[in-house]
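Side project, low priority. Logging it here so it doesn't get lost.
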Amino acid sequence: MFLRNYWYVGAYSDEVTCEPLGRVLLGEPVVLYRTEAGAPVALEDRCAHRLLPLSMGKVIGDAIQCHYHALEFDGTGACVRIPGQERIPPQMKVKSYPVVERDNCVFVWMGDAKDADESKVPEIFGKLCQDGWSATKVHCHVEGNYQLVIDNLLDLSHLATVHASTVGSMHVADMANVETERDGDRVKVSRWTMDVPAAKTYQQFGNYESNIDRWQISEFFPPSYFRINNGSAVAGTGAREGTGEKPWDFWVCHGITPSTQDSTHYFWHLGHRLWTDNMADVEQFYEQCYGVVGEDIAVFEAQQKTINLDPAAPMREIGYDAGPLLARQIIDRLLQEEAAQKSGKAA
C-alpha cells in the first residue's frame, strides 16, 4: 500500500523532454513529456485502445502518439485523433495526472486529481538551489521497497560499516549521542559524535589535521522525503553552538518515490557551499558520494531478496531504531486515515 494524496518526484526536470519518459509510480504506469511550450505532462502510460505503453510512441505537438495504431492523446488524456476515423468515442481517453515543476523536479500528484494542492508541493530541494552553492544529483531505480530506504536514512549508524572507506568510521556507531524528535508527522534524528578522528572524506575535503566534532541531522517528511545535514568542525571549538572552527558541511535531499511494492525511484540531490576553487576536488568529492549511494543500494537490494524468500520473517529492533520506527508508525497511521477517507467517500 502507498500514500497517494501527496506530491511525488516523478523525474528531474532535465529528464523530461519532448521524448516520452515511461516510469512506474506507486504501481501505476506513467509517461512524462513536454509540450511545445515546455510544460510538463503526465499521463497514464497505457493506450486506451490496445494498452501498449504510450512511452513507446512519440510526441507530436502537444499530444503523444501511440506507436501501435497512431492514436493521439493530448495533455488532458483525451484522444484527439484516430487515423481513418472521424468519430472519437468518449471513453477513448487515458488518465491525466496533475504536475508541478519546481526546484529542478517534476512532481506528480498520485491521488484524486481534484484534491491536488500546489501549496503542498514539498520544498525539500529548494535549499540546494542557492547562489554560491554547488550541487549534483542522481536518479536510481532500486530493486527494494521504499521503506528500506527510509529506515536507512533515519539510522545513520550504518556509515560505520557500509561506508567505512569514505564517510564512515566505527565512531559514528560506538560514540554517537543520538536524539530523536517528533514534530507532528515529521521525524528528526540528530547524531553528534564528538572529538573523534575524521573519516576519510572529512579529512580529505575538510582538511582536518586533528580530531573533529561531527553532526548528522536527518529530517523525515511524509510521505517519503528527507533533508540531511552532514558536517564537522575542529573538536572542542563550539560545533553544537554553530561557532566551530573550520566548519565543513553538505546537505543531501532525498525524494523516495515507490515504484512497485519491491522497487523504488530514488532521487538523491546533494548541495553545499563551495569550499575550494579547485573543481577537480569537488568532482572527486562527488565521486565518493556516488559510491556511497551505490553501497546503500546494494544493501537495499540484498535485503529485498532476503525478504522475498520469507516475507513473514520479523525484523527485530535495537536502540538506534527509534527514528525508523516512528516513521513507520506515522506512515501506517496515514495509510489508515487515507483508507478511511476513501471508504467514507465511497459510502
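Brief comment: The radius of gyration is 23 Å.
Revisit when time allows.
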